[in-house]
Amino acid sequence: LPLSPKHEFEVAMTCEGCSGAVTRVLNKLGDVKFEIDLPKKLVWIESDKDVDVLMETLKKCGKEVKYNGTK
């Protein structure tokens, strides 16, 4: 199977609570693999879902989100 693209997002996370919120919304979305780097404020998401969908999902945390492209 082809690998899903890996998208890099910058999310203004400042604490464990923020990264926990990101984890919750992404798990709820389902069918995504993700990694969170809290010190660097980065979230990598492997998914076939549309970038807009991923972006809207991350924004549910109430944090500023920036898309850095695929890696």
From TrEMBL:
Keywords from the named record: Chaperone, Copper, Copper transport, Ion transport, Metal-binding, Transport
Lineage top rank: taxon: Eukaryota
GO biological process, one term: copper ion transport
InterPro entries documented for this protein: Copper_transport_ATOX1-like, HMA_dom, HMA_dom_sf
GO CC annotation: cytosol
Entries under Pfam families matching the protein: HMA
A GO term for molecular function: metal ion binding
HMA domain segment(s): 4-66
Function description: Binds and deliver cytosolic copper to the copper ATPase proteins. May be important in cellular antioxidant defense.
Family as reported in the entry's similarity comment: Belongs to the ATX1 family.
Subunit: Homodimer. Interacts with ATP7B. Interacts with ATP7A. Interacts (via dimer form) with SLC31A1 (via C-terminal domain); this interaction improves ATOX1 stability and controls intracellular Cu(I) levels.
Protein name: Copper transport protein ATOX1
Annotated organism of origin: Sphaeramia orbicularis (orbiculate cardinalfish)
